[in-house]
Amino acid sequence: MPNKPIIGVTMGDPASIGPEIAVKALLDQNIHAICKPLVVGDAKVFQHIIDKLGLQARIHAIQDVKDAKFTFGEIDVFDLQNVDLAQLQFGEISAMAGEASFRAVEKVIQLALANEIDGTVTGPINKKSINEAGHHFAGHTEIYAHYTNTKKYAMLLSEDFLRVIHVSTHVSLRQACDNVKKDRILEVTELLQNGLKQLGIENLKIGIAGLNPHAGDSGLFGTEEAEEILPAVEEALRLGYDVEGPVPADTMFSKAATGYYGGVVAMYHDQGHIPFKLSGFKWNAEKKQMDSVKGVNITMGLPIIRTSVDHGTAFEIAGKGVASPDAMVLAIEHAVQLAKYKLAEKSAVPS
């Protein structure tokens, strides 16, 4: 693949599975075939996980993107030098780990805004750790929005046929209900269609979920469908979008999982996340661990590319060598696809 994009991958929380899945993903030759991967974090942490797990990789610590080698088996780390290994404990919340994970995100955003890299992929962070470090954000999405000065953005989840965007995410359920407004639904519908196009999805049919059981059942169980969701659907149709709704959520996702919809709009965090993770996360009851964790989180509306694994820090298995890199591999692949689209779009604009 000529002109392979440079993809910055953050360390995630150093006490989590983040460093492990980053190393494992970068030891996949297919990743090097499609991009030039660069890890952002503390080089000592990556060397520690390599030594602890006996992974066949070398670390190349750098302070400038131009010094990266992008050689398979030798992992380029933009070294922030901000973790004290003597204090680091796998699976534990700490301000030090929160600070290190936050600074990796901050740096990868800076590199992307400066056009030194073509896309960013984030490893899992612990929200309590970053807040203990003094950074009061609800998650990655809000950090990116703040540092890129983005006002209109949304979380898009992608795995196989299932692509889900959210009207709201990290707010209380009570507040999420209040956030179901016509203008916001239209906004995320537009972001979803843009995302589908950027991912190369040909099916642009969009399902828009109801908020209440049975999509309100003609007003018996709530009025949000009639007052906010249906008017948004009608306006979207008028604007030329291929939308359907409000669709009862308990039937919409079963259709979406088979490819009936190119993507769907969920009204709040768990309405979208539960079916999504049921599809992509495979729990092994005998081993009492995940066999596979698939799913990519994309932040739509940003001026830069950001994808992420859609799982947490998995503190309970950190440092044990059993973490699956599947989601990280998928997140990098999605970032590459988005970077290719952005490059093609830029090339199509007359100079």
Explain what this protein looks like in three dimensions.
The protein has 351 residues and is α/β, with parallel strands linked by helices. It folds into 2 domains: 199 residues, Isopropylmalate Dehydrogenase, CATH 3.40.718.10; 149 residues, Isopropylmalate Dehydrogenase (3-Layer(aba) Sandwich), CATH 3.40.718.10. Helices cover 40% and strands 19% of the residues. It is built from 12 helices and 14 strands. The strands form 2 sheets. A 12-stranded mixed β-sheet has the order 3-4-2-1-5-14-13-6-7-10-8-9, with helices on both faces. β13 and β14 form a beta hairpin. α8 packs across α9. The chain is globular, with a radius of gyration of 20 Å. Pfam families: PdxA. InterPro entries: PdxA_fam (IPR005255). Keywords: Metal-binding, NAD, Oxidoreductase. This is 4-hydroxythreonine-4-phosphate dehydrogenase PdxA.
Task: Summarize this structure as a short list of keywords or feature phrases.
Isopropylmalate Dehydrogenase; 12 helices; 12-stranded mixed sheet; 351 residues; 2 domains; alpha/beta
How does the major sheet shape up?
12 strands, mixed
- Overall average residue pLDDT: 93
How many helical elements? 12
Low-confidence stretches: none
Query: Do you know the CATH architecture of the largest domain?
Result: 3-Layer(aba) Sandwich
